[in-house]
Amino acid sequence: MLAALGADPVTVHYPLLARDTELMIAALRTLGTEITTGTNSVTVTPRPWRAGQVDCGLAGTVMRFVPPLAALANGDTFFDGDPAARTRPMGTLVRALRDLGIAVDAASTAAGEPALPLTVHGTGKIAGGYLEIDATASSQFVSALLLCAPRMTHGLTLVHTGKQLPSTPHIEMTVAVLRAAGIEVQSAPGRWAVAPGIPQLTEVQIEPDLSNAGAFLAAALITGGQVQIPHWPCHTTQPGAKFLEIFAQMGGVVTPRPAVDSDSASYTAQLSGTGKIYPLDADLSAVGELVPTIAAVAAFADGTSQLRHIGQLRGHETNRLAAIVNELGKVGVRAREVGDGLEIIGQPALGQSELPPANISSGHGADLESYADHRMATFGAILGLRIPGVRVRNIETTAKTLPGFARQWEKLVAGELVEES
């Protein structure tokens, strides 16, 4: 996006080409940006903005990051996506754009909140200035406005007025990328000031997606096995980096290994299971996207886990809190929503032949729903490592962020080397 907002071509190395990023590429092309893909790279060449029709799929980044860009085009840009996308929160962004003087037509949810499909009536410019929003539902609303802010005439001073701001590492990542592009950003808790300017990038190398690593780390923890993941960044703003710390608290042994290619900026992360899984009591508001993976591990913990301050997960690809409770119940794990969190009563013997799970005949598993949600699909796959007979419906939904997951998972279970992705 920042490359498209710049003036010169930018090559992005090692992008994760999955459904979400392919939808973003298609959206930017619709708005006029020239994008060419090569071997392990994408080159983005800015072009004049134009209006069009954007397919958001189920990508929160597309449905929230791209509408502000559409205001820079002259004309009407129509946004729609998968059926589940029409239930995701969009009110904060729609109100923000209207407060910035941009006309937006939007559908409404049953609760009367703005939602997809929507139309942005672009005039070719955004004045910017001062703006207050409540981003309690998603940090993506903040990132969406900050990323577009450099091309606003007066820049943007953005203030979050809500009580809680989820997934703050993602906002820190947004600010870091803006600064790397030469944009002046002043940042304080709940307040950001972005100066107008033209992003200047030439070569960008993308870090591996550490959130995708979570399922593989969880596999080692719940089976008492061992997994090594190369190219783990030494310094990163990604929330997925917290997996190592959290899984160490839950009983795993984390051992850094030298980088496979002597790259001083990364190392090989090794996690070994010990046969013991401890419950977790933690505030996970900053790392909400990790919760389905952590919840799958907590199902086997020796005690009750409290996963706190994650109410924003009700507005993700599905209502993840309700989905986790429902699917754990199918395999005999008691879980419930407590306020804006989850309580999971772990069963350390779950899946062992001598103690079949309650309500499961002959110790067999169940058909688990993925809800067209990539994290719920990997959640089910993790449970299936310990519980016989688990089947995950629509495992292909993992292609949203990790194409080829099923093949990689099969190799992991067989003890084979899983190719890098």
Low-confidence runs of at least 5 consecutive residues:
354-363
Strand order of the largest sheet: 2-3-1-12
The largest β sheet comes out as:
4 strands, mixed
Share in helix: 25-40%
Radius of gyration: 22 Å
N-to-C span? 22 Å
Compute the number of helices. Answer: 11
Question: What proportion of the residues form beta strands (DSSP E)?
Answer: 15-25%
What structural category arises from helix and sheet content? alpha/beta
State the shape: globular
Q: What is the typical, i.e. mean, pLDDT?
A: 93
Q: How many strand segments? A: 21
Summarize the structure.
The chain is α/β, with parallel strands linked by helices. The protein has helices at 19-30, 60-70, 91-99, 140-148, 168-180, 210-223, 242-249, 291-298, 320-330, 374-384, 405-413, and strands at residues 10-13, 34-38, 41-45, 53-55, 74-80, 103-108, 114-123, 129-133, 156-160, 185-188, 191-194, 203-205, 226-233, 253-257, 266-272, 281-283, 304-308, 334-338, 341-345, 367-368, 391-392.
